[in-house]
């Protein structure tokens, strides 16, 4: 399964978001996802299996619990693919940062504050 097929499902994306905060038990993930999406425990288990089978999540047993964590390797591959497209949003964001800084500077000058280009 392609990474975007895995990430295309909102339930799997939510599971990864929950795991981004740190390792979680299968039970905790299941409870959170069931509450948000109203799906059954077996359906959540299937989503966890897809994440495991495609390398997005790892699982380790701890006593009777199963602890899940994010495996960052496939996400790095997605990030590398997205790198080809960053040029479409990076320059506009940099231009926005420049305009915001210009606006702050003009506001300070109007209010009688120091000009940041002058040394103190």
TrEMBL record:
Residue ranges occupied by any HTH arsR-type domain in the UniProt entry: 1-89
InterPro entries, alphabetized: ArsR-like_HTH (IPR011991), HTH_ArsR_DNA-bd_dom (IPR001845), HTH_MetalResp_TranReg (IPR051081), WH-like_DNA-bd_sf (IPR036388), WH_DNA-bd_sf (IPR036390)
Gene Ontology molecular function terms on file: DNA binding; DNA-binding transcription factor activity
Key words, A-Z: DNA-binding, Transcription, Transcription regulation
Pfam families linked to this entry: HTH_5
Entries under NCBIfam families matching the protein: HTH_metalloreg (NF033788)
Name recorded for this polypeptide: Transcriptional regulator
């Amino acid at each position: 399964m392609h990474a975007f097929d895995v990430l295309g499902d909102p339930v799997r994306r939510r599971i990864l978001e929950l795991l981004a905060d740190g390792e979680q038990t299968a039970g905790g993930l299941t409870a959170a996802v069931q509450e948000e999406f109203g799906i059954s425990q077996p359906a959540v288990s299937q989503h966890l299996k897809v994440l495991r089978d495609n390398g997005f999540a790892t699982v380790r047993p701890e006593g009777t619990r199963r602890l899940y964590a994010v495996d960052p390797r496939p996400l790095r591959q997605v990030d590398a693919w997205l790198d080809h497209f960053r040029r479409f949003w990076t320059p506009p964001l940099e231009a926005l940062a420049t305009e915001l800084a210009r606006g702050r500077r003009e506001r300070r000058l109007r209010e009688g504050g120091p000009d940041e280009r002058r040394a103190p």
